Amino acid sequence: MVKKTTSKKGNLGAVVGLGVGIAAASVAAYLLFGPDGEKNRKKVVGWTVKMKGEIIEKFEKVKEVTEPIYQEIVDEVSKKYSKLKSIDKEELEAVVGDLKKNWKKIIKEAKPKKK
Predict the structure, then answer these.
(1) How far is C-alpha 49 from the geometric centre of its chain's CA atoms?
(2) Do 30 and 102 meet the contact criterion of CB atoms below 8 Å apart?
């Protein structure tokens, strides 16, 4: 009879993936429903939603979201959008600035609440 063994390492990957997914969802929720959510929702234009979605997708692919990784992902995605003629460069800079400025608030919201 073959004995089945389970590895704790296999479950760790799922836990890390879940944590990254929660962090990405927290980023999106904060941007749209946080203290400046109403203002952010009013600003939302089709390309900003798509850009933020791409940023969130990239978050889900990394093991841990740190500030340098966050800044790098935002820069990488914004570089793609800066090449599009249909996007106002000042508006793009404003959106990127807001994303970068809100790192501390986003990470604070993503951390589990203490009871």
Answers:
(1) 12
(2) yes
Q: How many domains does the chain contain in total?
A: 1
Task: Classify each residue of 32-69 as buried b or exposed e, where b means 16 or more C-beta atoms within 10 Å of its C-beta.
Answer: eebeeeeebeeeeeebbeebbebbbebbeeeeebeeee
Q: Are 55 and 99 spatial neighbours (Cβ–Cβ below 8 Å)?
A: yes
**Beta carbons within 8 Å of 25's beta carbon, 6+ residues apart:** 56
User: pTM higher than 0.85 for the full model?
Assistant: no
Residue 99 lies in a domain: yes
Enclosing domain of residue 56: 12-110
Residue 64, pLDDT score:
83
- For residue 7, being part of any structural domain is answered with no
Residue 35 lies in a domain: yes
Tell whether 100 is covered by a domain: yes
